[in-house]
Amino acid sequence: MPVSYCGEPLRYSIFDPTGNITALVETPVVIDAQPAVAAFVMREHPEVEQVGYVRFIADAEADDGVHVELRMAGGEFCGNATMSAAAAYALWSGLEAGSVLARVSGAAHPVEVRLHAMNDGSFAGSVHMPQALSSERFPLTWEDTSAELPLVRMEGISHLVIEPHSAFYWLLDDRAAAEQAVRAWCAELGADGLGLMFIEGDDSELQMTPLVFVPGGDTVFWENSCASGSSAVGRYLAEKRGGAVALELHEPGGILRVESDPVTGETWLHGHVCRP
Fold it and tell me: Which end of the chain is more exposed for a tag (fewer CB within 10 A), N or C?
């Protein structure tokens, strides 16, 4: 794109993984400057919810089979950005179907993404999500309300699940209070990033509204979709029900499908990614 930063051309592309609009910067940027460059890109494109920095690796140079490296501007893990980075690699390399290994910020091990090119130029993608580190109930307080919330800690980000019966569900209708709460709770939990996943409905139509705070980039977004949050909800509901689940989560930007098995800890996230 013909946009410059500090007088130099900035190479980046924009992807749409289920409405969670993601910019991927190919120009090398030192880590300390990445949040500022991300803020610049988001000012240029207000629809962008997150920015990552990518490097593609040719097969002959691949280390341990890794095809693409992705670092989010805040150092967090993001499943939708991982799917986008895999799609960007596929476009760069000419891959139409197969597996892409991505080394991603916030994930201890490379993440597998399975892609299949569609006739409309988009990709159907499945992300083998990093296993949750823990799942528990955590006591929290906001204003005059105190209650326990399900907390799923993951590599690079953690998520709180808020259901209609929760004492904190009212935050969905007071977005300013919710944005203040997610910042405060993230600091209290010592998390790299924190999401509030508001869910309601049943398996026939499970609705999810995600709010995500990333302190490394100082960003708070009511996201159109959240892959790691969807994974956390799948893990929570699988444990709650005592068995594997396969769910469709209806999010503001579309549908993400999640399969989670509490016995193996395996979670797969399925969605689509395209160039808007």
Answer: C
